[in-house]
Design goal:
single chain, 0% strand
Length: 226
């Protein structure tokens, strides 16, 4: 089990034939399903059996018994559904995190807190517990990912244009975020987008925020409305 990352990437070196199946939790999902403070996992990794209950061992065994990706999804869904977290129980913190994603990280923390009916310090505590980091860091990461997606779907777009479109103060501010979050500059990462951006994004416009899709279609991306 790998927690959220808030600093430069790590490399996972694999040898031989590898058959992998990964479950990625949406913001707040791990805390809601397993009552585990997400902050305890941030920038760390553990064996699943160390963190989760004994049922995870049964999940491992059942996943090993099936061969197709579809069957593995079914097995994982069956296990997670037993955790019993109905959709209408999604917390205001998780909703705020989704709002950040939909707006490419271009959100003021004060506005998030106001919309959630919380003070900024309360929001900070709840974000750390449910998301694994404070809202400001979360916004930085989401905006970093949005920049990578935008470059992936529009390779001819200059990084200066991307910085402007996503509301960075200037390009150097964006370079600083890239260095902190990935260990590389926009230019160096631009040659390795396949390591950072999902294949479906590289292949088209699936799973992209609506405003980035609009840029792909119109070639005019103006960033979020203020």
């Amino acid at each position: 089990m790998v927690g959220a990352r808030t600093s430069r990437n790590c490399e996972l070196l694999l040898q031989g034939k590898v058959d992998a199946f990964t479950i990625t939790f949406q913001p707040g999902g791990l805390a809601a399903l397993f009552s585990i403070p997400a902050i305890e996992l941030t920038d760390r990794d553990f064996s699943g059996t160390t963190v989760l209950d004994s049922g995870i061992s049964e999940l491992y065994s059942r996943l090993a018994e099936v061969c197709t990706f579809t069957d593995r999804i079914r097995v994982a869904d069956d296990y997670l559904m037993t955790r019993g977290s109905p959709v209408n129980s999604i917390s205001n913190t998780a909703k705020a995190a989704v709002h950040v994603m939909r707006n490419n990280g271009c959100v003021r923390v004060e506005d998030l807190a106001r919309a959630a009916g919380l003070g900024t310090r309360q929001l900070e505590r709840r974000f750390r517990h449910e998301i694994g980091m404070g809202p400001k860091m979360y916004c930085r990461i989401i905006r970093f990912e949005a920049a990578l997606k935008l470059k992936a779907i529009s390779p001819s777009m200059h990084w200066t244009q991307i910085a402007h479109a996503l509301g960075y103060h200037d390009q150097m501010y964006m370079v600083h975020d890239f260095t902190v979050l990935s260990g590389g500059t926009p230019t160096s990462i631009g040659t390795r987008l396949d390591m950072f951006v999902k294949p479906e994004v590289l292949a088209g416009i699936q799973c992209l925020p609506r405003d980035i899709q609009t840029h792909r279609n119109s070639r005019m991306y103006r960033g979020p409305k203020r």
